[in-house]
């Protein structure tokens, strides 16, 4: 069973935008129905970008421990914006998997033993549960890349092999 099959998923705007740009935001909503969480910082980024995601619980940092973590992470990782920091915080304090395509956010989360997946993991999960075929997942990925998503050629090739060989 795929790690994204159970539990909450804390989304960063990078993944949301990638799926939005290729008209597949509904796929995220469907795959994580009732399990989507995001920080209020990510929520504000979506509002600013005029994007909507339904079926998501927006969570604000609410106690001293969460704010201290946010501030410490902000100091230690100055390249991360409030959205990434908030998504990591929500994942940590609400027992969720962080879903981001941001490399710095992934590395920071892994330092705190937070499970992390990106857009490729979401597409693999969609194939595993039969929501997309391997060919469709590759097409979605290629569309994301053509819209500006940056994923190394090595990761793209590994992804293609995994989802196309799973037929």
Description:
The chain is an alpha/beta fold. It has helices at 13-21, 25-31, 40-48, 64-76, 82-93, 103-111, 119-128, 134-146, 153-165, and strands at 8-11, 36-39, 56-59, 96-99, 116-117. It folds into two domains: 3-118, Rossmann fold; 121-165, no CATH class. It is built from nine helices and five strands; from the N terminus they run βααβαβααβαβααα. A five-stranded parallel beta sheet has the order 3-2-1-4-5. α3 links the parallel β2 (36-39) and β3. The model has no long low-confidence stretch (mean pLDDT 93).
Percentage beta strand: 5-15%
Backbone shape: globular
CATH architectural label of the largest domain: 3-Layer(aba) Sandwich
**Strand runs, count:** 5
Overall pLDDT confidence:
93
CATH topology of the largest domain: Rossmann fold
Work out the oligomeric state of the chains in this entry.
Answer: single chain
Order of helices and strands: EHHEHEHHEHEHHH
* Number of separate structural domains: 2
For the largest beta sheet, what order do the strands appear in spatially? 3-2-1-4-5
Query: What integer value in Å does the Rg equal?
Result: 15 Å
In CATH, the homologous superfamily of the largest domain goes by the name 5'-nuclease
Structural class by SSE content: alpha/beta
| Poorly predicted spans | none
Name the CATH class of the largest domain. Alpha Beta
For the largest beta-sheet, the strand count, sense and barrel status come to: 5 strands, parallel
Q: How much helix, percentage-wise, in residues?
A: 55-70%
Task: Figure out the total of helices.
Answer: 9
Topology record:
Layout: E1 8-11, H1 13-21, H2 25-31, E2 36-39, H3 40-48, E3 56-59, H4 64-76, H5 82-93, E4 96-99, H6 103-111, E5 116-117, H7 119-128, H8 134-146, H9 153-165
Parallel strand pairs: 1-2, 1-4, 2-3, 4-5
Helix pairs in contact: 3-5, 4-5, 7-8, 7-9, 8-9
